[in-house]
Structures are given as C-alpha cells and as structure tokens.
Amino acid sequence: FCALAAEVARDFGIHELGMLTELRLARPMSGTKAGGPEVDNGGLLPDNRREVSFRIFVPSDGGHIGPPASMMLRTKDGERSHSLEVRTGRAFVWWSRQTFHQVLGAEGYFAIAGWGVVPQKVDRARQSWH
Q1: Which end of the chain has less Cβ packing within 10 Å, N or C?
Q2: Minimal CA–CA distance to 63: which of 84, 87, 83?
Q3: What phi and psi values does residue 17 have, to the nearest 5 degrees?
C-alpha cells in the first residue's frame, strides 16, 4: 500500500500523503449489512480525514482465482459510476470522502484495506503514519 500511496502522491502532487500503519483485514459476509453504497469515512481517525482508500481482495480458499464479485464506485454527485470486476492482484484506489463504494458477491474473499492521509499538526506528535 505504501507504493500505491507514493504513486498517488506523485501523480496528484499530494507531497505529504502518508500511509496509516494500521490495515484492516475483513471477510465480507452476505446479508450482514444494510445494502447500498457507503462513503469510506471515519473509523481509524476521529476527525474523518482519510484522503485515499485502498482495497485488495484475496480469495479466502487460497486459490489463484476467486468467485465472481464486483466493486462499484460512484461519485457523491452521482455523475459517474463504475462497476469493476474483483480479481486476484487487482488493487482499487479512490478518493475516500468523494466516492461511494459497494462490494457485491465478495463473500469468497478477504478484503485488505488501507488508507492514505495528509497528516495534521496533532499527528506529528503521535507519528501514526509512514
């Protein structure tokens, strides 16, 4: 994820973008959450400052090819929407607070999530990113 954050920082000129050292590993389960897209906001940091979200999906059975699944990304204003196939080795990157996301059919995967943020002054004392 650090390499992805470095590419985003380079390409978009966000020179202070850093990776949080905490990653989230989850296994999406069908029927455990209300449907509909959500904004990837809040959670690890109390002031909702996540800038870039990263997801990688790994088949839970250890195989090279997982079952069919898709990641839907939609801008907050609804002008753009994309549905992309979840595949082993594919990384998803999006602007956290400006994009809704939804994963469909990913029960056969582990989802590894990471976030890139621009540190604020209070973070410099804590050193909670790299």
Answers
A1: C
A2: 87
A3: -65, 130
pTM for the model:
0.75
| Three-class secondary structure of residue 117 per DSSP | strand
Measured CA to CA, the distance from residue 19 to residue 128 in angstroms comes to 9
C-alpha angle 19-17-126 in degrees, rounded to nearest 5: 60
Q: Compute the CA torsion angle 38, 44, 47, 52 (nearest 10 deg).
A: -60
Q: Which residues pair with 71 in a beta bridge?
A: 84, 103
> Which are the contacts of 36, defined by CB distance < 8 A and separation ≥ 6?
102
Beta bridge partners of 88: none
Q: pLDDT tens across 63-95, in order? A: 777 788 999 888 877 788 889 999 888 899 888
d(CA 105, CA 13): 35
Neighbouring CB atoms inside 10 A of 32's CB total 7
For residue 6, which amino acid is it? A
Single-letter amino acid, residue 20: L
Give dist(CA 130, CA 115) in Å, integer: 11
